[in-house]
Amino acid sequence: MACSTQLAVLRALAFVALYGLASLNVHASSEAQAASLPCEVGSYLMADGTSLDIGPGSPGQLRWRRPDGRTGALAPQGGNQWTSALGWTGRPDGHQVIIHCSRGEIRFDEVAGQRQPLVQTDTRFQSGDVILAGRLTLPPGQARVPIVVLIHGAEHSSALQRYSLQREFASAGIGVFAYDKRGTGASGGRYTQNYLTLAIDAIHATREARRLAGARAGRMGYQAGSQGGWVAPLAARIEPVDFVIVSFGLAVSPLDEDREAIEFDMERAGFGPEVKAKAMEFADAAARIVESGFTEGYEQLEAVKNKYRNEPWFGSVRGNITGYLLNTPTETIRRDAPRLLDGVPADYDPMPVLAGLDVQQLWILGGQDRDAPSGETLRRLTGLRSAGRPITTAVFPEADHGMYEFEKSPDGERVSTRQPEGYFYLMRDFIKGKLLDSEYGSAEISADRSGSRRGQRR
């Protein structure tokens, strides 16, 4: 679809979203009945002045997180005691944790802490004909605070259950509104990955957050990860906010993402341009299958597999959509793929929206992101910044998708260890509208041409 045509369609649909649906959440606030969390979950202020988040982990476990990016899995040892393993490695890291739920007390190694009295309000609000479950979390007190609305990626899990940022940001003096994506958790409706539908949901979530926060609501904006990087700018273009943070998202289409991921696969495996060109034949075949609605193109994909299956680089082809198609039986793809990729506009071009978005943006990218390689996105964002768009970019060179640093297991697979130092603090300062520091860990930061490096309201 041509850029001008696509943008015209989005504007028309935006009018419907703004005016056709505007009255639907006037009476849409009742308490969400989400599944209960373990009593240990919470944000703790430690005696040494630091903060510590305890959240759900793998079944039967908890997970601790520090604002500096360190994290570990907690396994129960009986009574109130837990032992920690580094990141997601399963390897003991020596930390010992004791949590007394009834007293709201914690001891992390030798440092004691107390649960912070964050103010949480559960709600239900309406978006179209769907009721969504949300939660506003505010710092203690009555002060006016910035509020960030968390937008999902493609996950099916409950944000209300799993998103630690709702407590971590609130612990840092920021209001947070989290909500379960339609068709997940405590929200109604059918799961979808249609960006416009999800953008409209985000708009109604922001309206609900503002309503609940009342006089405490300061500047408002979005933080979105992965697929949310297509949704948040669209929502901000339809109904402006004060800021947008995109973490490990993209300024290219999903099909272009797949092609970039395959190219990155070849680079990491040490293969050059000639092999990259051959590997693109897999991307071409995958694109034909997707664009046909999973009805055509299987013969083409099989032919490419037969052509290159004995090549030394064949096993290194991973990609995103392509990886799924290569490793899944055809009958399973025909049956499951339309549901798994429900609503995804595979050829969606985000540039018309971004080119006209006059909202302060912070794009945080991973230099080792295999799922959403950042090269072309960074080039496009740099061009938009040169054209006057208020865009700041930050690249953490050793971070994979999800903004996780990693180590490699003996079989060559990546195992996440932590988030980069500076990642959380960078988002915190941008949300608060502060002048950004010169350094946030290893991040390579490029600010908008005003040189302000500020997430300020325009």
From TrEMBL:
PANTHER family: ESTERASE ESTD (PTHR43265:SF1). Residues 1-28 form the signal peptide. Keywords: Hydrolase, Signal. InterPro entries: AB_hydrolase_Est10, AB_hydrolase_fold, Hydrolase_4. It is an enzyme of class 3 (hydrolase). The keyword Hydrolase applies. It comes from Microbulbifer taiwanensis. This is Alpha/beta hydrolase family protein. Its EC number is 3.4.-.-. GO terms for molecular function: hydrolase activity. Residues 147-236 form the Serine aminopeptidase S33 domain. It holds the Pfam family Hydrolase_4. The keyword Transmembrane does not apply.
